[in-house]
């Protein structure tokens, strides 16, 4: 008697429906299911919709199941896909880098606006992580030159890859260093110091979403018990390295606006103010070097 093996072959549409149901209770389950399909199949969303009745091969289904289980464990989608969009570009990310957030785009926009019309400036990105800030500035303004600093060798590797992918490898220099100590640059040699440093206090960290706390690098989030240890170091570096009229832009927590402004003595800074994100929350420090 012949022996038949019956395979549970699904169409793309059927797989997405089942995956969406399994992801119920997580963020944007249908969108994530579609992203996983596109990632494994190597197609875009348009092709997914246009060819939704095509079958998913058993090999692709095995890969999808692995990724789906990773998401169900709480792992962020950006780490599963290995990339995250920032300012209209895809940036490679991994466990060595903080996942770029939309809020950080406000720093880039503010820098571009402040130096509008300036063909050439020199900028310093402290705690570059994936390189999203430095690479974006160089991509948006090809004549600008910058230095991106991070203590993590793994993060700098990803930042260099992102610079190569975005065509800015010749515009951004990468330096492995601890910016809480003096950096090897001449005083007043930069027009812009920009940073999204660790600023989460120990107390706040304990209450973070498990997807952040269990997967993103703690060193990129928590500078110390207070949460202001690295912001304080950024101000000190900017005070030493910015030219007269140079700009300091630094992201911070939504409750740290007043505390970060207090880090900037009037003797060294002017036009100090707090920028807000789209939700109206305090998000970054703006200060001009006297």
Which helices and strands, and how do they pair?
Blueprint: H1 12-22, H2 29-41, H3 45-50, H4 58-72, H5 77-81, E1 83-86, E2 89-92, H6 105-114, E3 122-126, H7 132-140, E4 145-150, H8 153-165, E5 172-176, E6 190-195, H9 202-206, H10 210-213, H11 229-241, E7 242-251, H12 257-261, E8 269-276, E9 282-289
Parallel strand pairs: 3-4, 3-6, 4-5, 6-7
Antiparallel strand pairs: 1-2, 7-9, 8-9
Features:
290 residues, alpha/beta, Helicase, Ruva Protein, domain 3, Rossmann fold, 2 domains, seven-stranded mixed beta sheet, two-stranded antiparallel sheet, 9 strands, 38% helix, elongated
Short summary of the structure?
Helix content is 38%, strand content 19%.
What does this molecule look like?
This protein has helices at 12-22, 29-41, 45-50, 58-72, 77-81, 105-114, 132-140, 153-165, 202-206, 210-213, 229-241, 257-261; strands at residues 83-86, 89-92, 122-126, 145-150, 172-176, 190-195, 242-251, 269-276, 282-289. The protein has 290 residues and is α/β, with parallel strands linked by helices. The chain folds into 2 domains: 12-68, Helicase, Ruva Protein, domain 3, CATH 1.10.8; 83-289, Vaccinia Virus protein VP39 (Rossmann fold). Helix 1 crosses helix 2 (29-41). The longest helix has 15 residues, at 58-72. The model has no long low-confidence stretch (mean pLDDT 96).
């Amino acid at each position: 008697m012949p022996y038949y093996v019956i395979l549970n072959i699904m169409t793309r549409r059927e797989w997405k429906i089942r995956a969406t149901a399994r992801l119920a209770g997580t963020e944007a389950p249908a969108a994530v299911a579609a992203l996983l399909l596109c990632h494994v199949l190597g197609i875009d969303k348009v092709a997914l919709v246009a060819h939704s009745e095509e079958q998913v091969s058993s090999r692709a289904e095995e890969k999808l199941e692995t990724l789906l289980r990773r998401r169900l464990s709480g792992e962020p989608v950006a780490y599963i896909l290995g990339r995250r969009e920032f300012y209209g570009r895809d940036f490679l990310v991994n466990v060595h880098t903080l996942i770029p957030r939309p809020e950080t785009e406000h720093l880039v926009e503010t820098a571009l606006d402040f130096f509008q019309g300036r063909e050439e400036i020199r900028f310093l990105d402290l705690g570059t992580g994936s390189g999203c800030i430095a690479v974006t500035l160089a991509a948006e303004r090809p004549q600008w030159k910058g230095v991106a600093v991070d203590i993590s060798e793994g993060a700098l590797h990803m930042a260099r890859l992102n610079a190569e992918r975005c065509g800015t490898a010749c515009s951004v220099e990468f330096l492995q260093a601890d910016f809480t100590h003096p950096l090897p640059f001449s005083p007043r040699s930069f027009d812009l110091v920009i940073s999204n440093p660790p600023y989460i206090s120990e107390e706040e960290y304990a209450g973070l979403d498990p997807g952040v706390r269990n997967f993103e690098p703690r060193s990129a989030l928590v500078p110390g018990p207070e949460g202001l240890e690295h912001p304080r170091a950024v101000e000190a570096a900017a005070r030493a390295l910015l030219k007269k009229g140079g700009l300091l832009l630094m992201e911070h927590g939504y409750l740290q606006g007043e505390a970060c402004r207090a880090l900037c003595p009037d003797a060294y800074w002017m036009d100090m103010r707090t920028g807000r994100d789209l939700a109206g929350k305090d998000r970054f420090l703006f200060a001009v070097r006297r």
